[in-house]
Amino acid sequence: MRSPINELYERFHSGLETSAGPADPLFSEVWETYHAVTGQASNLLLVEGSVDGADEVELYRARFSRVGSISAGMPLRIPTPSAQAVRAMGRLLEDRANIDDIGDFLALSSPIVNDLSAYCSTHLGRLSLPVLEALTVAAKSATIMNHCVISLVPGLNDREAKI
User: How much is the average pLDDT of 82-105?
Assistant: First the structure.
């Protein structure tokens, strides 16, 4: 049975296969939402009593904050269904706040970043190179962060993104 976070990821992923229009949110807005949801996951780990796990997530967030500043002037828009799925992940974490959902979200961090990277590359080509470099670092950092959090947080089994 797929978790609610995994179902939202599927909506996010399939949303990126549609065309974005002028009313859809900018890449930088979606990235900021993702950054905020990751911050929620960190705060929830604190609530669960895992200071070390929360610290790892905060280190990851610091590594990828560069993406937000680089993408600030990028004209790329993200299809609304994908943006809504990221916001829904945040609401789900806020409403349910259980360790399994936190773990599922963190396990999907790298696939989310990779999907955004592929979308940028497809729709902006060479213009996306500065952001693609930052996204590559963010995706690798997400994988490392997830493995560190798994080892530090009781109750998180070794989970890989189930996509």
Answer: 92
Where do we find the tokens 């995994």?
6
77: its two tokens: 């828009």
> What are the pLDDT digits (tens) for 7-45?
999 999 999 999 899 999 999 999 999 999 999 999 888
Helix 109-124, helix 129-152: angle, nearest 10: 170
CA distance 115 to 29: 16
Pair 66, 113: CB distance under 8 Å: no
Half-sphere CA count of 160, side-chain side, radius 13 A: 1
Give the CA angle between residues 153, 99, 135 to the nearest 5°.
Answer: 75
